[in-house]
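Need the bound structure for adenosine monophosphate, inputs here:
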Amino acid sequence: MLNIVLFGPPGAGKGTQAAKIIEKYQLVHLSTGDILRGELAAKTTLGVEAKKYMDKGELVPDEVVIGMIESKIGQNTGSKGFIFDGFPRTTAQAEALDKMLNKRNIPITVMLSLEVEKDELVKRLLGRGQDSGRSDDQDVSIIENRIKVYNSETAPVKGFYEKQGKLKSIAGMGSIDEIFNRLCEAIDKA
Ligand code: AMP
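Answer from helper R.:
Posting the output first, comments after.
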């Protein structure tokens, strides 16, 4: 199995690149942000609860997202692999993911970390907010908070995979195709 953690700050291009990677490598795409927005659209209790955090640019509690991912993994055990997008976002989530995957003997193959400068992130997110109408992409103070939370709580997850020799940093600036080619090169060597 090919199991990829696609990592990077909000606006790094994880969703865009994940869509291209799943097509090429036939993987199951697990985006906690997409799953949470689906719950919200369906007005489930989980979605309504998660919205309180998402609207502020804060992280939804670990146990909520860990439970969501565990059930999705269980539903797709026959697949060629998974691409985790927007998860894990804390060290506790990374530890929980390792436990779930090790139990099934399907460890993470590689973490691909997209590196993008902050000014570019804000520009991309505001652009996306205009196109998609996503409320957390339209307000500069929410965007700033998401980047702050990324730096304090999420960036340390890189160290978790670095210790396992699985971290690959990828330049996330340039055209979508240029970045995709860099990612594919790293996947093919992993
Ligand atoms: P995203 O689409 O990945 O930018 O996620 C949108 C929002 O959903 C984030 O700002 C968080 O509030 C929440 N979220 C998504 N994934 C996670 C996660 N792994 N842990 C905690 N909160 C998450």
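Comments: The mean pLDDT is 97. The beta strands are 4-7, 28-31, 82-85, 110-115, 167-171.
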